[in-house]
Structures are given as structure tokens and as C-alpha cells.
Amino acid sequence: GAVVSQHPSRVICKSGTSVKIECRSLDFQATTMFWYRQFPKQSLMLMATSNEGSKATYEQGVEKDKFLINHASLTLSTLTVTSAHPEDSSFYICSARFSRTDTQYFGPGTRLTVL
Amino acid sequence: GESVGLHLPTLSVQEGDNSIINCAYSNSASDYFIWYKQESGKGPQFIIDIRSNMDKRQGQRVTVLLNKTVKHLSLQIAATQPGDSAVYFCAENVNSGYALNFGKGTSLLVTP
Fold first, then answer.
1. Up-side HSE of residue A7: CA atoms within 13 Å toward CB?
2. Which of B98, B102, B105 faces A102 most closely, judged by CB atoms?
3. Per-residue model confidence as pLDDT tens digits over A48-70
């Protein structure tokens, strides 16, 4: 149980294009999901908290107009990187909170490369 | 600012030995802690968690110890196996919004 999926697992795009990443909780409902960013050999950095049916809460320094988050259902949150640039290249990981225990379960991550 | 950190960035152990990974936290208000294992190119995998009203919790081959007096958390892995090689992160619940603050990570290398 408590499986979280992400799609795509890897994406390469041209600078200036937008990329959408999906995060799904497969066997539980998650009112709260989180988006993290991880650079090589570094820890996870929280970007935003995604709440079902309401606006996402962004961490300081994260541009909400650049990283659009939509939590349209209890099992799906999406992150759209708009007008991507090479510096946006990173490993993006989502997590979903299992409300019964407060535990966050993570997806497998999405490797974004912007050329 | 307050943060979660790890004492040792790398740890090398022989197969079959016990491993201990340490973590210090500074937010005295934290009440929930989790250990994650991350293999290269993958998302973090839940290992074990503990709440602040407990000092110790055991799972399969793993034990988490919490010392609130010195704000210290540790993960013990018994009979370490090559498959345990990964980066291990401790994380703390920083507020009522359930967001997690991650430590820097310890790379565990298990040698045959």
C-alpha cells in the first residue's frame, strides 16, 4: 500500500517550453501533496504544498507563476514548469501525505533536462 | 535558522555489521520524525518513523532512537546488507502543515 507514482520519469525539453509533471497516489486519497526539488548529491528542498481544492502554498524563493501547481482531485497533483530554462534542470519529486499516520510517501521522481 | 542535520556525510560498513546513522535536530517543537532511504535516481523510500512521545521504535532490522534531551535521532540497521547501500535522510515535521524539513543525508556504503 501507500504507492505514489509520477509521470513522466524523465523529460528533455527545449528552453522556453512548458513541462507538466503528474503525481498520483495510487491506493489512498491525499488531501495534501508536496513538491520537492533535488540537485545532485544534495538533500530535498521543499518547493510547495499542494492542497486539494485550494491554492498551493509556496516556499520562500519559489516563483508561483513559474511552477504552477494544481491539485484537482484527492489522488492527483500536477506541477507545470513554465517557460523552462536550463537552470530549471533538476530532479523533481512529489510526495503524498497518508492522513491516517501523517506519513509522506514519495514518488519515484522526474528527471527534467532543459536544453 | 533551525534545521535538521547529520553528523556524518558518509559511512562505510562491512556486510553483516550493524550500522548507525545519526541526525541532530534543532527545532524543539518538532514532534514527528521520519527516516528515508534513497537509492540513486529514485525517490525516497519510507523506512521508519517515530513521534516525540516515544524514545525507541523498532521495525524489521531497523531501530530508531529519539533523544529529546539532546535533540538527537539515530537509525540503527542490523546485519547490514549490500542492498542497504543508499543515502539515508532524516526528516522532521516542521509545522502543522505536515511539511518536512530534510537533513543533508548520509551515504551508506556496504562492502562485502
1. 6
2. B98
3. 999 888 899 999 999 999 999 99
